[in-house]
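Protocol step 4 of 6: structure prediction from sequence.
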Amino acid sequence: MRLVRLDLESFRSYRSAELQPAPGLTIVAGPNGAGKTNLLEAVQVAITGRSPRAAADVELVHHGAFFARIRLDLIDERGSELRIEALIPGVDAPREVRKRVTLNGLPRRVGGLGETVRSVLFRPEEMLLLVGSPSERRRFLDAIVAQRDRAAVRDLAELARVLAQRNALLRAIRHEEAGEEELAFWDEQLAMIGARVMAQRLAIVGQLGELIGPLHDAVAPASERGERVRLAYADSLKDAWPARATGVSDALEDRELLAARLAVAYRERLAGVRQKELWNGVSLVGPQRDDLSVELDGREVATHASRGQQRTIILAMKLAETDLLSADGPAPVVLLDDVFSELDPQRSERALELLLERGQVLVTMADLSSLPARRRRSVPIWQVSDGSLQLTPRVA
């Protein structure tokens, strides 16, 4: 699947804008704050239904506008043309204007386009993926899960709802405004939905683990090649799930059976932490407490790997994400938001070469010199300035 045209109306800093990406590499250049990131964000919002940086959808709408509109024109491998259109209401939008997504004019569930088009977004913040908070690593896993399985999108949304209700109930019980017996329903909801989410994540971790070794060596300088990268899922089930050592392999074979086993473990673990949860007024067990553990030659990357080693692993993880999304669906559009300024030239060139082998890549950058010189020749460069977008002559 290839993006041939992005058209924006009242999105972020743009009253209107049009971008026509090349089949391979396209560069969007401009100073910081000019709106380069907004273009990649628009593509991501239309495809996944979620913004990587907005706390609320109304932040995406140009000031004073009733709504924002994003149109993506795409061509699949057979030459068929597709159009995705996303409408996002603003703070003063009429009541009948609601968030919606259409594919060739037909309504689709927001975030439910994974079977048609996919995307991989790589932001500078992800250079801290391995040393940042566990929520960042959970978000990395869930972004893959959500694009590969439509049911998983519902599970992730339902998990957030269940946790909000359960936490509110725990606080009410702590203040003697509700009875402990009311937890039974929400315990079962958390056990069933949490088990499905965890089984999905385990499968992704197992598949990433199979891919990451060769990809790590493909990106790494010669001095770092051959180092063993190991991924593991760090859960909150403790002794309630004794089959942890075989969990990843089980996830690769029979996800429904694994989810059933995990639900049993969740019930046991929730019963075991009941008094502690009542005291704290918050859910202490569930996918919201889990993490992705990354080791290099048997040592935790966050505390023992150099900055260069960490960045090599992160690049390998994003490449593996791209390959996973390509394995059972359309090759994703890769969106790189000013990441080359964070990388040395060798890693930049190797990573870009590998990504271009996989499909279409859109890159934003404030400084064109951060891209290898040979890439700046014969590559379309779009310049962003004062809310406008213009294709510039190619660099000689």
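Step 5 (inspection) to follow. The chain is about 40% helix and 20% strand.
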